[in-house]
């Protein structure tokens, strides 16, 4: 199967209509990358739909490039579909497989996003926000795995060992557990566990973010997506994780002494 | 000391300039109210300063009324100072001590906020957002304690046993712990403990929210503010709570099995 065909793309889509927000998380580790996104979703008005998805472009044994998106669905889908169609065709400014560095991939994604927003934005703005953002992650042979956040302006930032996770969408509910427990030297499996706890916190506090959750654990130099797992709400592991985490929080809270209050007169 | 004098007001203010965001939390319980706010803060430009504070108006043995505010400092200060000056003077639409119900207090606060925004808003808008919001809580003799959120539009919602806590400002980081562990039948001390954990989560994830944290535990029918405690970062109880919660989270995460990954070829 040639690189760049639709079959090389795994688009993390769930049944529609259940939610209207997005949460995507990318974690950079020495062992590789953990990428997680909740399920695809539509807002009420299709022009301003908020969507999250995990799209993966594989060039066998040479590159694994993943895009997670939030924001205007028409904008982000146009970017992703254009990149998908161009992969392996040699088209400049579109074919991500032409690049030898994820930095160049980020520039191409940002540039394409700019052009699409320049073209479509003025028509869309009177109906809603045309903007979209991406988490871009992956590895090209010759480099370590890298992780970027591409803004609507087409510029981007890269994760580093000191700032080793990036989020887009509904980011805040799931941030405290990452700040408390995630370290750069964590292994892939521990980071995936923390990613699922982060999603659980988000789902509990925002009904509009919902499972299933797609989690890709990418091991450095594997050039493989075999560890792409879709966690449904009923998944036995996800269910056990949620229960044990909830029980642990309750026990922790119960064990902390309460502040002393003055008796009221 | 007559009601309505400045001495009757306890304004939760910390040294300025350390932070630039706000988080205020109000919890309604059968035993009373727990109200918490982080310390006062200024944004870079004073017209659009974001501030949080806890102001308490006491009418001895008759009413305890607390206001916590977020948003434009000039707007919220004008509302609070106007109400402070009017307390006990008998001025219609301003003197909160005229009311026999917190519902009427909420209408007066919302109405005053509307008038101030109508008067000042057009002048302020070209410099920044003139809006402000309040958590309004307290008890008037003859009623149980009540808790409201007053929006910039001057309308408001009331907490209920099924929706028994309200937040303003930087609300999301501190919400998951409340959703997991806070119940309507909790006592004041347990709710205060959870409020402090909620603030700790917010402070860890957003450097712009900072201690000290003012916490008022108001016991139903006490008409007393003796349980107003300012928790500095170095407070021994707050320090122990943070450490024990952090250790408990770490132990909980460590005890949860990690997801099984396929070995990479």
Provide an overview of this structure:
Chains A, B: It comes from Thalassobaculum litoreum DSM 18839. Two copies of one chain form a homodimer. The first copy, chain A, has five helices and ten strands. Chain A has a single domain, classed as Glutamine Phosphoribosylpyrophosphate, subunit 1, domain 1. In chain A, strand 6 and strand 7 form a beta hairpin. In chain A, the strands form two sheets. Chain A has a five-stranded antiparallel beta sheet, covered by helices on one side. A five-stranded antiparallel beta sheet of chain A has the order 3-4-5-6-7, with helices on one face. The N terminus of chain A is likely disordered. With 265 residues, chain A is α+β, with helices and mostly antiparallel strands.
């Amino acid at each position: 199967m040639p690189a760049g065909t639709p079959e090389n793309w795994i688009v993390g889509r769930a049944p529609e209509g259940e939610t209207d927000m997005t949460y995507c998380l990318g974690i950079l580790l020495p062992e590789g990358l953990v990428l997680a996104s909740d399920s695809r979703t539509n807002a009420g008005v299709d022009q301003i739909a908020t969507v999250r998805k995990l799209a993966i472009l594989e060039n066998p044994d040479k590159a694994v490039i993943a895009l997670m998106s939030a924001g205007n669905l028409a904008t982000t889908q146009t970017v992703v579909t254009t990149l998908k169609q161009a992969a392996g065709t040699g088209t400049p400014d579109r074919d991500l497989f032409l690049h030898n560095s994820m930095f160049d991939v980020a520039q191409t994604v940002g540039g394409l996003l700019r052009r699409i927003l320049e073209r479509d934005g003025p028509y869309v703005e009177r109906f809603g926000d045309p903007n979209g953002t991406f988490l871009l992650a992956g590895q090209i042979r010759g480099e370590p795995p890298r992780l970027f956040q591409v803004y609507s302006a087409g510029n981007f930032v890269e994760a580093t060992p000191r700032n080793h996770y990036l989020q887009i969408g509904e980011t805040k509910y799931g941030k405290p557990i990452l700040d408390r427990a995630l370290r750069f030297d964590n292994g892939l499996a521990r980071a995936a566990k923390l990613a699922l706890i982060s999603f659980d916190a988000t789902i509990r506090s925002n009904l509009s973010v919902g499972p299933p959750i797609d989690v890709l654990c990418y091991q450095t130099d594997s050039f493989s997506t075999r560890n792409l797992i879709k966690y449904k709400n009923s998944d036995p592991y996800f269910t056990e994780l949620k229960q044990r985490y909830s029980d642990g929080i309750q026990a922790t809270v119960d064990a902390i002494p309460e502040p002393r209050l003055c008796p009221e007169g």
